[in-house]
Specification:
Chain B: It is found in: Cell membrane. Chain B: This is Permease. The complex is a heterodimer. By secondary structure, chain A is α/β, with parallel strands linked by helices. Chain A is built from seven helices and ten strands. In chain A, the strands form two sheets. In chain A, strands 6-7-8-3-9-10 form a six-stranded mixed beta sheet. In chain A, strands 2-1-4-5 form a four-stranded antiparallel beta sheet, with helices on one face. In chain A, helix 4 crosses helix 5 and helix 5 runs parallel beside helix 6. Chain A starts with a strand and ends in a 5-residue tail after the last strand. Chain B folds into four domains: about 230 residues, no CATH class; about 130 residues, no CATH class; about 210 residues, no CATH class; about 180 residues, no CATH class. Helix content of chain B is about 55%, strand content about 15%. In chain B, strands 1, 2, 3, 4, 5, 6, 7, 8, 9, 10 and 11 form an eleven-stranded mixed beta sheet that branches. A six-stranded mixed barrel of chain B has the order 14-16-21-18-20-19. In chain B, helix 10 packs antiparallel against helix 11, helix 13 packs across helix 21 and helix 20 crosses helix 24. About 0% of the residues of chain B have low confidence. The chains are: A alpha/beta, B alpha+beta. The interface between A and B is medium-sized, with 34 and 32 residues.
Chain lengths: ~230, ~850
């Protein structure tokens, strides 16, 4: 597993409410190789998004550990995890998560500006050009269609040249044709930048385009299909 | 905090500004600063203006007086400090006409007299008066009409003052600085100081009062007074505007208190505005915060970004607010220029500091807790939007903010009791009523379950999150409360003034009426249509000892007691107590009066000053005889109402054998002034004293202050409305979203409109109930502990305020949520999600 960029060991996530204890993830172990593409598939409520959030260090497991880019996330505090994300991780969300008050260009510039990069504007403009939105730089999210908004989100995700890209149902809010375009774009950029892609989806066709798929069922990981 | 964070924060801020995200917060802040600055500016100038107006009654800003010539150093220093000055010498002298002689008060004045106010004269007795901006030329005197009547003098006649023979060139009808002393029995003569030596009246040992009138810039006066006070000897007194004149003093005090309270209301409004809009700012930035964290920004960096943004906003809004406040107070002054004192002092710096401090304290105190919450947003929110950060426990910060605002309020009112009454009254009321509102909402949840759909939808918003709803009710309640308190106080203030000087307030005093003429005099007054107070017997007497100790040893310099023992007191006797007097200690005369001792009733201020208590024995010298009298009670006297009042009242019979004359005051309409000439002729021994001019001056000042008070009230009300609407804006986001959602589910516009109206009306009436309860509590505390007024419940407001709250917030809310029924639901949903 030496070339694995993500390693999870015996991950469990348990939520306790007043009425009951709910096990969302149950003893999940996995390893994801550098520059590979992995789909996490499963029915709604199977724990896909929870697994993604744990792998990306957005949340902490109840037990078990995650190694991301060689660091054990359990050893890091919230701010150190944020730093790690800043260095290595990009995200694409189902609901795009663009900031309404920023234009397409400014949304893409945001992670670059957080890194203090001086060429933020130029690089963001190039990326938007690359995703086909060169003419929409100054448009606000509300002036863009869903597909266009997701392209902006993809441009933003690749802006900081991440080692790992986490995508949570990236086509979930889009129609089939647009979804197809977005998927092509995602995989093209992934290939160009040698990024490790971890994608949560319940779209079987999308999962099939990944090199491997992890099947979750009621919080447990089934045997890899590929 | 590195440079990157600064520039990122400001860049993000600029982008958000362009996108219109920040307008509500900035508007609220600007209003907060604007209102407190404008009110602070205006009240500052007005108060200083009113003080300068009151200075007219002193003829100067301050006066040093002494029985001996004042040291040269006093004048020297005044000149060095750039103060204007006038010398005045006062003495009593016998004036003789052809047949009569009359003791008169002569005032010899230097050029420039008076430094404040104006002298008015008439060319003949009871003729039309006019203002003169000069003093009598050398060789001439101006005399009071009653002296002219007594000595049968006309203008152009000659009057001997001591060794000098002077020409009477005008009738003196008004000199500003005699106002405080209208009980003085002797008629007045005004002459030029240059003639004083020629009169040869002032000799070693003669009873003369030397006065130095001073006037100048506030700071210079203050500095001079500070320099002077430690050097004053026992026979020297310093009188400033604040020490002088009870009628004007109390009116001005109340006005100043009102304006201070109005400023407090403005500060409360500012706090509410900032708290609400900062909370909205925070809520709308949860996603931004989560995304920044997700993109790798540390918690500290995210907090720094928002703190920098808020600080920038605060700074910009404060500067704009200060500038607008400055412009606005000029507008106020322009609008009121006919009614404001002509020499309104310039703009001071203090209001700018106060306004700026209000903005920054309100921002730091009320915006920090929501911001801290913003820092706690979990990055996981990018995946799970329902993850809102827990409300931060901002008790410490809110406490600090409240403390800071209390200090500001203290600064505004200069009165700790008032500040504490408002802060504690408001805090207790807010806390209790917040809990009650929350409980009511919880309870009504069950009741409304079976109500109509509009009711359920309307109340649903409030019931779903009782704590948030209670917070909104609290905010609206505080806004309404500020407005109601200002309204109540203003009405009370105007009533008090109205009562103080009703239409038939006596405008004349008649003294020296012979007891034998009593019936005839009363009939004469009735004949000319004058409304008269009772006639009191008066006998002059001097207080010499208290419990067998010489009174001179007991009084301190510059005290009321000192003034009382240094001249004859007007003593009277009466079987009953005047209706406007209040018994503070002891009891009124018993049914059967003792034969072997005299009893007296003493005025409370004098009693305090002399250290006299019930049971003490006071010795008087009256017409050469010594009379001991035991203090049976202490009275509080209302000196403001222009009716005869006395420091000492004897029990009936005590002064039986003493020579006495009668005294009364009466009200006579101005157009019947000519009748006074006949009255003066019919009772030649009588002294008639006109206080019409003084009364008019007090009325003028009260009218001005009333207008200013009204204006400031309207200003606070307008500010209240503005903040109310700004506050409402901050609660609309979620409502618009849910309304749009309902429309997609097929809800008709009418239903949504009705639900919105009901919701806001419910919110408004609950806020109204809270406002009136809190306002009553605060006014009760204020009246009881700070203003010394009688408090009674304002029943009408108990109905009016909740109804007004319901209508106001109902209408405003309906207007604010018009978008629900106007705009495309899809747009609203996209915007809301």
């Amino acid at each position: 597993m030496s070339d694995s960029v993500i390693v999870a060991r015996h991950l469990s996530k348990v939520v306790r409410s007043q009425e009951a204890t709910l096990t969302i993830l149950d003893d999940v172990s996995l390893a994801i190789a550098k520059a590979s593409s992995v789909a996490i598939v499963g029915a709604s409520g199977s724990g896909k998004s929870t697994l993604l959030s744990l792998l990306a260090g957005l949340d902490l497991p109840s037990s078990g550990e995650v190694h991301l880019a060689g660091r054990n996330l359990s050893d890091l505090d919230e701010d150190q995890r944020a730093e790690l994300r800043a260095e290595h991780v990009g995200f694409v969300f189902q609901s795009f998560q663009l900031l309404d008050s920023l234009t397409a260009l400014e949304n893409v510039m945001l992670p670059l500006e957080l890194h203090g990069r001086h060429d933020a504007r130029q690089r963001a403009a190039d990326l938007l050009q690359r995703v086909g939105l060169g003419a929409r730089l100054t448009h606000y999210p509300r002036q863009l269609s869903g597909g266009e908004q997701q392209r902006v989100a993809i441009a933003r995700a690749f802006a900081s040249e991440p080692d790992i890209l986490f995508a949570d149902e990236p086509t979930g809010n889009l129609d089939a044709v647009t979804g197809q375009h977005i998927t092509d774009l995602l995989f093209d950029l992934n290939r160009e930048q040698h990024t490790t892609l971890v994608m949560v989806t319940h779209d079987q066709r999308l999962a099939e385009r990944c090199q491997s798929a992890l099947q979750l069922e009621a919080g447990r990981l089934l045997e890899p299909t590929q | 905090m590195n440079n990157g964070t600064w520039s990122l924060a400001t860049r993000l801020l600029a982008r958000e500004w362009r996108a219109g995200e920040l307008r509500v917060l900035v508007m609220a802040l600007i209003i907060a600063v604007l209102v407190s600055t404008a009110i602070s500016f205006f009240t500052d100038r007005l108060q200083r203006g009113m003080v300068s107006r009151a200075a007219e009654f002193l003829g100067a800003d301050m006066v040093i007086s002494s029985r001996a010539p004042l040291p040269e150093a006093f004048l020297q220093r005044a000149m060095e400090d750039g103060l204007s000055h006038v010398d005045v010498v006062e003495f009593n002298s016998m004036m003789s006409g052809d047949v009569e002689i009359q003791l008169s008060s002569v005032k010899a004045v230097g050029p420039g007299y008076p430094l404040k106010g104006q002298v008015r004269v008439a060319d003949q007795m009871f003729g039309t008066e006019r203002v003169v901006n000069a003093i009598p030329p050398p060789g001439e005197v101006w005399i009071e009409p009653r002296l002219a009547a007594q000595l049968a003098l006309e203008t152009g006649d000659t009057l001997d003052v001591g060794m000098a023979s002077m020409s009477v060139s005008a009738m003196l009808t008004y000199e500003p600085d005699r106002a405080g002393d209208f009980y003085s029995l002797t008629p007045r003569v005004l002459m030029n100081l240059a003639d004083l030596e020629e009169t040869a009246v002032v000799q070693p040992g003669s009873r003369v009062r030397y006065r130095l009138l001073l006037s100048g810039a506030e700071g210079a006066l203050q500095g001079y007074a500070n320099w002077l006070r430690p050097q004053l000897e026992d026979n020297q007194q310093l009188t400033t505007v604040a020490d002088d004149n009870q009628q004007i003093g109390s009116a001005l005090d109340r006005a100043a208190q009102f304006l201070g309270l109005a400023s407090i209301a403005a500060v409360v409004l500012a706090g509410v505005a900032v708290a609400l809009s900062a909370s909205r700012f925070a809520t709308r930035h949860f996603d931004t915060s989560a995304l920044l964290r997700c993109l790798g920004a540390s918690r500290r960096r995210v907090m720094s970004i928002f703190l920098i943004q808020l600080a920038c906003l605060g700074l910009v809004a404060t500067v704009i607010g200060l500038a607008l406040g400055w412009v606005m107070q000029w507008g106020l002054v322009l609008l009121l220029r006919d009614l404001l004192p002509p020499d309104l002092p310039g703009v001071g710096l203090k209001p700018l500091l106060v306004g700026g401090a209000t903005g920054l304290i309100a921002l730091a105190g009320f915006a920090l807790p929501p911001l801290i919450r913003l820092g706690k947003v979990a990055p996981l929110r990018v995946l799970r939007r329902d993850l809102a950060p827990l409300p931060s426990s901002g008790w410490l910060i809110y406490g600090l903010a409240l403390g800071g605002l209390s200090l500001l309020m203290w600064q505004f009112t200069g009165n700790l009791r008032i500040t504490l009454a408002v802060v504690f009254g408001g805090a207790i009321a807010a806390l209790l009523l917040g809990l009650v509102a929350w409980a009511l909402l919880r309870l009504s949840g069950n009741r409304l379950r079976n109500a109509g759909l509009a009711w359920r939808l309307g109340s649903g918003q409030l019931l779903k999150q009782p704590i948030a709803a209670a917070g909104q009710i609290l905010a609206f309640g505080l806004i309404l409360m500020s407005m109601v308190v200002v309204l109540i106080l203003r009405t009370e203030l105007l009533d008090t003034w109205q009562q103080q000087l009703p239409e038939d307030t006596p405008n004349h005093f008649a003294l020296n009426i012979m007891p034998a003429e009593q019936a005839e005099f009363t009939a004469a007054l009735e004949r000319i249509g004058a409304v008269s107070a009772p006639l009191y017997p008066v006998t002059p007497g001097r207080l010499t000892e208290i419990n067998s100790r010489p009174v001179r040893e007991l009084v301190t310099k510059e005290s009321q007691g000192e003034r009382a023992v240094s001249r004859d007191l007007s003593l009277t006797w009466s079987a009953t107590m005047a209706t406007d007097n209040t018994l503070l200690a002891g009891e009124w005369w018993p049914d059967t009066l003792p034969d072997d001792e005299s009893l007296i009733s003493i005025e409370s201020g004098l009693a305090d000053s002399l250290g006299v208590e019930v049971g003490d024995v006071l010795s008087f010298v009256i017409a050469g005889q010594v009379l001991d009298a035991r203090v049976l009670n202490i009275r509080e006297v209302n000196w403001d109402n222009f009716t005869p009042n006395f420091y000492i009242i004897f029990s009936p019979g005590s002064l039986e054998n003493m020579p006495a004359t009668l005294l009364t005051s009466f009200s006579l309409p101005t157009e019947k002034r000519a009748e006074l000439r006949d009255l003066a002729r019919a009772f030649p021994a009588m002294t008639l004293l006109e206080v019409e001019a003084l009364l008019k001056q007090i009325r003028d000042i009260l009218a001005q202050v009333t207008l200013a008070v009204e204006y400031v009230m309207v200003f606070v009300l307008l500010a209240g409305f503005t903040v109310l609407f700004a506050a409402l804006q901050s609660t609309l986001d979620n409502r618009l979203y849910e309304g749009a959602l309902l429309r997609t589910l097929g809800a008709r516009k009418a239903l949504l409109r009705q639900a919105n109206r009901l919701e806001f009306a419910l919110l408004g009436s609950l806020a109204g109930i809270m406002a009136i309860v809190a306002a009553e509590l605060i006014t009760w505390l204020l009246y009881r502990f700070a203003l010394n007024l009688d408090w009674s419940p304002h029943y009408l407001l108990w109905v009016l305020v909740p109804v007004t709250g319901a209508v106001l917030i109902g209408v405003a809310g309906a207007l604010g949520t018009r978008a629900v029924v106007r705009e495309s639901p899809m747009r609203l949903i996209n915007r809301g999600s």
